[in-house]
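Here is this case:
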Amino acid sequence: MQFRVLGPVAVTTTNGAPLPLGPAKRRSLLAMLLAHPNTPVGVERLTEALWDEEPPRHARTVLQGHVSRLRAVFAQHDAETHGVELLTQGAAYRLRLPEALVDAHRFEESLRFARRSADPAQAVAVLREALGLWQGPAFAGTVHSAPLEAPAHALEELRLTAVEELARAYGQLGDHGAAASVLGAEATAHPLRESLVAQLMLALARAGRQADALDRYHRTRKLLADEIGVDPAPVLTDAYRTLLRVGVDVAADVDAGSDTDARTPTEAAVPTDDETAVAAGTAGTPNSCPAALGASSRDGTNSPSSTASRARCRAPSSRSPALPASARPRSPCTGRTDGAPTSRAAPSSPTCAASAPPRPVTPAPCSASSCSHSASRSNGCRARPPPSGPATAN
């Protein structure tokens, strides 16, 4: 005897024949008991699961009738020989059975085993068998109620985790095409699951489909902004940076869930949106173009990060770098820095007592009264020697 909840709720005999379970409310009762195997489930909780709205006044009587019908079906097919029994415990019911008879339990055990396995080929085999247990949405054919939707959602999350694990195992075997195929359908059904999309992007790139990988990122980023008004999470932006890297084997790259701050020097060459606002290089040193920027232009995409980075990428200038003000020579007469802007009116200056550095053209001498800022700026300034005294007549 087997119990199925990974798809329509059903019970099958040893030869695979389904047992007649009856209407949706009876299946919902069985589903609630299978969601909590070997655990008492209260009547109030079962009533909430069977009636998504206000239950009728005779809800307890109807519930007892469904319990009686299930017991009759189990008895007709020798359920006790398989260790299955529906028990009453006070104001609750408990389905006693070996948990291995429930497909959801076997699925979870297989997933745990595959995640612990160090052999990717073995993990692929186990995960494919585990995912083969699914025949539709969990707890299908039951009443839509919160007590049943919660375990159904939890099982769906585990299924997506198994898909991601299967793709990762395929990648470890080098079969990136199979990994992309496994992830593609799930990413279409769950377009806002960013970890799944990030893994698909890397699988596509490793399979030689770089353009498809980048297109998937841009579509997901737009969908996140339009649907819920958020930017891509680090798991998605890290995968995007990886795709922009040039000359790096993406098959050996970091996993999609790695920390965003732990970037290699090559990854740091691809600027983030915040980094584009920071000037690259010191004064007088031409900025260098990151090699990874070429990837975005070759595949035809144009992200804000790469656009801003290309805008600040400049060819080396042939002009000499400008010196800082503190390093410029100062005028011996005016004390101003050479090349600094001056006013039109020449300020009063002290008597010139020093000589300017030698220049190709010898400047004319100047006196204290004739030394002006304009003269010192154009010709320099040299002090007139003092007179040697009155002339002596011969």
